Amino acid sequence: MELLATLMRPMLAGALLLGTFASFASAADEKKNDTEKPGEKVSYFRDVVPIMREHCQGCHQPAKRGGELLLTTFAGLKKGGESGAPGFVAGKPDQSLLIEQITPEDGEAEMPKKKPPLDADQIALIRRWISEGAKDDTPINNAVAFDADHPPKYNAAPLITSLDYSPDGKLLAVSGYHEVLLHKADGSGLVARLVGLSERIEKVAFSPDGKFLAVTGGSPARMGELQIWNVEKRELMLSHTVTYDTIYGASWAPDGSKIAFGGSDNVLRAIDVKTGKQVLRMGSHSDWVLDTVFSVKGTHLISVGRDRSMKLTVVATQRFEDNITSITPGALKGGLAAVDRHPTKDELLCGGADGTPKVYRMIRKKARKIGDDFNRIRTFEKLPGRLFTVRYSRDGNRIVAGSSSNGTGEVRVFDANNGKRIAVMQGQAGAVYATAFSPDGKVVASGGFDGAVRLNDAATGKLIKQFVPVKVEPQVTAAK
Ligand code: HEC
Asked: Tell me, what's the pLDDT at 138?
């Protein structure tokens, strides 16, 4: 009896709501019918999934099952969550848990939790999909659902786009496919796999206190996602989906309160870590924003991108303040892929298509003159090819840069103070996309196209260790 009561509860609530929203839903339907071809059915895959992806999956996914409900697969939606009721009853929107949960009452809806309700036309669309029979038209093979118990399997080593050491020097985070791999810093073993929604991982960054790991990535042409993981518990704290493409370049405010990132929609954004709310949006870039870093005090945000510029934004006002790099046509060749800040000074190291690491001062001391590149304070030796990664050591005395040139790569360490080269990291075998200094500055980790992590002695360049961060099981194909 009690079970039945639980089962009935949401339906009763749904029935009670019926009167209020039936009129509003039909109004929305009318509006839709003006623009839509008559007879065209609402598609789950094309129409409903994008709404779920943007507003629901952050809290209803394998790594984070709010209310025991999975909204990343059709099966999950159909099954429903902790209440025991199915997610929907085909043909009967008014008896469907989903509709009950998303329909606002006095301007507020149960779901998305603690957020504004979905738009009326989105709710109407989901209603219509249920009325029309709630068919699953997901293309076959598009519904891979990885989670901690079903991690991805690799037929080949995944390319490595990002690496970061935990501040205590114990862990090395390595980007994988659909996951971040936490390794012991000396390469002696895999400690944990943080499996999330995004196929592609673009950047991994430990919080200043090392308790959290920020991850930017996404699924191309579908969504961008910022993940925040609790490192000790290996638990996903936040999944913030944004835009319809991969996002890049996660960086933490020095006090850990915010995370900034860039997008292929040319927008620089930052969110508040506690609330998950967007607190900064800056749209002055004219191409993809690929990397970000905060100033020493967290008052400013620096971003670089494919538009060849390094831009300065005031955090409190979200206002674009200055182009740090020259704006003279031809002064910078090609886009910028990476930026890092000196640990104690507002000096910015950047690298990009011209292969030359450079350091700029953040705040200009002189009014801009056309043609100047006045803020530049140091230029290092050019590496072969394009730079994808530049990093400072924790004491600010060294920099490392990694490049890619026609399928080969180089990693070089320089003296940050006099610009001289210290060593070339030996044993590189392919394009290099990621580097990191161990917190004590003694080791440089690097990775890239060939999928191996290399640990080199930062002072001599000697290869200490090389390992593939995942187990690779070449697919056994049946003989013909
Ligand atoms: C911020 C996190 C969050 C977001 C975003 C969110 N949910 Fe939820 N949802 C939860 C939690 C947590 C529960 C468990 C009940 C509760 O705490 O209110 C839940 C419960 C539910 C339930 C009830 C499951 C059951 O069987 O009891 C449904 C249905 C649901 N959510 C649908 C959605 C839909 C649809 C969206 C997007 C429009 C959405 N949620 C967005 C966190 C979230």
From this structure: 86
Please tell me whether the overall predicted TM-score, pTM, comes out greater than 0.70 for this model. Answer: yes
Which residue has the least CA distance to atom 31 on ligand 1? 111
DSSP annotation string for 377-434 = EEE-PPPSSEEEEEEE-TTSSEEEEEEEETTEEEEEEEETTT--EEEE-TT--S-EEE
pLDDT at 440: 98
d(CA 212, CA 153): 25
CATH number of 163-467: 2.130.10.10
Which of 60, 115, 121 should be mutated for ligand 1, with most atoms under 8 A from CB? Answer: 60
Residue positions counted in the chain: 480
Domain boundaries, given as residue ranges, for the chain: 2-131, 163-467
Question: 101, 103, 129, 223: which to mutate for ligand 1, most atoms within 8 A of CB?
Answer: 101
Q: Is 97 in the pocket of ligand 1 (CB under 6 A)?
A: yes
Distance 113 CA to ligand 1 centre (A): 6
The low-confidence residues of the chain, meaning pLDDT below 70, are: 1-39, 140-144, 328-332, 370-371, 476-480
Tell me, using a 6 A CB cutoff, whether residue 48 lines ligand 1. no
Distance CA 403, CA 355 (A): 7
Distance between Cα 77 and ligand 1 center (Å)? 11
* Residues 38-47: tens digit of each pLDDT: 568 999 999 9
Contact indicator for 357, 399 with CB cutoff of 8 Å: yes
pLDDT at position 373: 79
